[in-house]
């Protein structure tokens, strides 16, 4: 079975509503390839290794969270960007990239999918004033000590997290935002949850965790953002009866 590129694009945009977001990159079809789609390859970042794997896997579409054309970057198509774009165009692979719309989606998005992976019960959002919130809150199925939770994260995400102990308290309630969202740690502390989890950590994050008494976990930018594209790819494969393969290009960051 196959689906037209136009129909696939329309389905993705209906699902993820990119027009509702002010973002750092264009969301949606970033590079146009062939017009009939039989196979989607998904991955976190449209790096050369993922493109090569997509070519190898006969993909017609590459669906990612981190695409190209970021605000503030060099607008010319030279160097690494030229190589990547040339590989995609030569093989007529369309590139779809969804950044914030993929973080925010309430069923298939990165945050809700990460919650499923980690057995969090989703109870609401912290950034309530945002049109499309991306900082979620909820509770663990059972409370964990700091050390238990570190082991749990390492096992579920297959990557050692960095943890900062905020207090001696166990963790029952948690807030989280996938990717590089360490700046929301104070929002989490004000909300009174026991812990905050995101993908990355910065030097000041450590002090904020210690001084607010909030446990902090940096579980990997890549590791926390693997699940949204998989859920979207699976959804499209079921809907249009086409193939979908998620390819994980290992990234310790
Ligand atoms: Zn990201």
CATH class of the largest domain: Alpha Beta
SS strand fraction: 15-25%
Gross morphology is elongated
Total number of beta strands: 13
Helix percent reads 25-40%
Tally of DSSP helical segments:
10
> Overall mean pLDDT score?
97
Task: Tell me the domain tally.
Answer: 2
Ligands in the structure? zinc ion
CATH architecture of the largest domain: 3-Layer(aba) Sandwich
Q: Can you describe what's shown?
A:
Helix 5 (110-117) crosses helix 10 (227-240). The longest helix has 14 residues, at 227-240. The protein has helices at residues 5-16, 48-56, 79-90, 100-104, 110-117, 146-157, 185-191, 203-212, 221-224, 227-240, and strands at residues 3-4, 28-31, 36-37, 39-45, 61-66, 94-97, 120-125, 136-144, 162-164, 171-177, 195-198, 215-218, 243-246. It has 2 domains: 3-102 and 226-246, Udp-n-acetylmuramoylalanyl-d-glutamate--2,6- Diaminopimelate Ligase, Chain: A, domain 1 (3-Layer(aba) Sandwich); 104-224, Udp-n-acetylmuramoylalanyl-d-glutamate--2,6- Diaminopimelate Ligase, Chain: A, domain 1. It has 253 residues and is an alpha/beta fold. The chain has 10 helices and 13 strands. Helix content is 37%, strand content 25%. Helix 7 links the parallel strand 10 (171-177) and strand 11 (195-198). The strands form 3 sheets. The protein has a 6-stranded mixed sheet, sandwiched between helices. The protein has a 5-stranded mixed sheet with strand order 2-6-5-4-13, with helices on both faces. A two-stranded antiparallel sheet has the order 1-3. The chain is elongated, with a radius of gyration of 19 Å. Residues 65-66, 179, 221, 225 line the site of zinc ion.
